[in-house]
Amino acid sequence: MTNIEHLTIEAADPAAAQRFYAEAFGLDKQVRVRASEAPTTGFRGFTVSLVAAQPSIVIGLQNSAIAAGAKELKPAKKSLWGFGGVVQAPDGTVWQLVSSSKKDTGPDSRKIDEIVLLLGVSDMAASKKFYVERGLTVAKSFGGKYTEFDGTGSQVKLSLYPRKGLGKVTGVPTEGSGSHRLAIGSDLGDFTDPDGYGWESAA
Considering its fold, how many domains does the chain have in total? Predict the structure, then answer.
């Protein structure tokens, strides 16, 4: 079973970025930060979703992110599929804060149930094939619209989404170039995928 141990976000000010993730989301093990001056402009091509059990947790995460310095891209509210909002961290990473539930069943526990990395890709079929050949198992697939890989036992789940569609969902223009400023730490080893996302050994 492929296991993503952590995500490494590259930032011009890693100390400030690390403080943000600790204060906003309470993340320290699954999200790491390191210094990078790699040129990047506009949308970096990916988002990270924090999945929670109910709306109150989503609202709490959104509020703490904004208080820690994030920019609100979409306010937290009900939708057809559940409840969610979108923020952009000071380092530029876009975060989706979501719940499939539209109603609260208890107080805000601040508990994050899942972390999902959504990679915006240019060719869904090619990217899906690339990852399957490296040992990932498809859990859900909706043609060229969405692919989710089995994340059993993994700290971070992986999903693929068309780049333009991902930008539309999160409310950001999809134009961008340069480094993704992201490294995916797993047990798959070191490689770069068709869209330029870098993977490295978690060990």
Answer: 1
